[in-house]
Amino acid sequence: MAMPSALRTASLLLLGRTAVRVQAVLGDPAARLFGLDQGEDPYPVFESVRAKGVLVPSRMGLHLTASHELCSRLLRDPAFGVVPAGALSPVDTTAHVGGRRLMNPVEDSFLVLNPPDHTRLRRLVAPWFTPRGLRRQADMIERVVEEHLDQVAARPTFDLVRDFAARVPVRVITDLLGVPGADQAAFARWGSVLVNALDGVRDMAEMRALHTGLREFEEFLDGLIAHRRRTPGDDVVSALAAEPELTREDLIATTELLLVAGFETTVNLIGNAVLAVLGHPEVRERLLDSPDHAEAVVEETLRFDPPVQYTVRAPSEAVEVAGTRLPRGTPVMLMLAAANRDPAVFADPHRFAPGRPDGREHLAFSSGIHYCLGAGLARMEAAAALRGLFRRFPDLRAAGRVHRRPSRVIRGAARLPVSTGLRRPIRQNAR
Ligand code: HEM
């Protein structure tokens, strides 16, 4: 019956929110993080965790670390396995709907599997992300960037996220998966809804949106898989559909993972990089003088304000870490964004300084066996977007309030109004 389970879910969500609020007031570090208001700066909370020690306990049933050394160590330690970030949520987002268990975009995928299943599934999609695979994407990415800049150039102001940053990754991911052009808008919508599953849902409205999005997306993928079995193309879904050993569930989960992992993360990398450039006139000047500086700006954005703020690991057996005994299964929140500002590794860590010598030590793409498969692609997309944007609009300015995303795991702007700074809008296709 739908009602009792909806009521139970609503009660659990409410209880969860209340517990977080109470613990946050009492100064619990994890509760302070989960309880951050939309748009609130998380970096002071990260620093308060760092000040408390290397491994900090929380009454919310987990431990936290802001230490770069410990994050790197646990990410590479085979004794620590993956735990979905949503597992910290009070409700199970994979609950049955209409008598059928829905897949969850990340919790059924290889992102949260340990070897040997992780190795088997990751290996199937890895060829698309090799340097050779990426070279095939490079021209397409430049073309998509220019096309979308053409579209906004006729307007004095536009929303950098919705009208530009979101457009490039969705084209890249749909191209990779072999999704026909007409379905790209729906893909962008599903990507935005499904990414919330990373956090665990906060209220019933999000829960319903997630279930509807998952159902629609699964139906769409079933159709796409059937189509690609009949008419294979040179794309990930066609290749996976041709694998005799792969179950429907693995195929759907892998495709969902690529959408969720590759879409909003890249949108936010582009958004966070633009925000950083707008706030640092000296960086803009350097970028205008030499557009290749975009790569260093992207790298420093990954360190300074990473789109994925944290991940979670748990030991498969009881272990001692930093003088604390952790029972089997205790979740440890590895605060990647905090590790990226660890003064033990980065000189003057709160300064945005593209090209810094220690810049590539960041953990924005994680480390170990789950190191981001799309890191090269994301770097390429974001650098192309930044180069194209500032070449076309050297005087780009913020033109209104930045609206932040509600998520704690994913950090970035949901809306970022900008003005092109051009006195007369450029006619379409004029460069
Ligand atoms: C700025 C953009 C991106 C960021 C910050 C990012 C970050 C991450 C992080 C932190 C992880 C590991 C999580 C963990 O260790 O628990 C990860 C995994 C992953 N990412 Fe990305 N990612 C980005 C873009 C992409 C893109 C464009 C794709 C593909 C189209 C992608 C595909 C994946 C996949 C498949 C995994 C799972 C790897 C595994 O479990 O073996 N990512 N990403």
Automatic annotation (TrEMBL):
Q: Which Gene3D superfamilies does this UniProt record tie to the protein?
A: Cytochrome P450
InterPro entries associated with the record: Cyt_P450, Cyt_P450_B, Cyt_P450_CS, Cyt_P450_sf
GO biological-process terms attached to the record: cholesterol catabolic process
Q: Name one Pfam family in it.
A: p450
The record's section on SUPFAM superfamilies has: Cytochrome P450
Top-rank taxon, per record: Bacteria
Q: Name one GO molecular function term.
A: heme binding
List keywords of the entry alphabetically.
Heme, Iron, Metal-binding, Monooxygenase, Oxidoreductase
**Which protein family is named in the record?**
Belongs to the cytochrome P450 family.
What is the protein's given name? Answer: Cytochrome P450 140
Q: Which species is listed as the source? A: Saccharothrix coeruleofusca
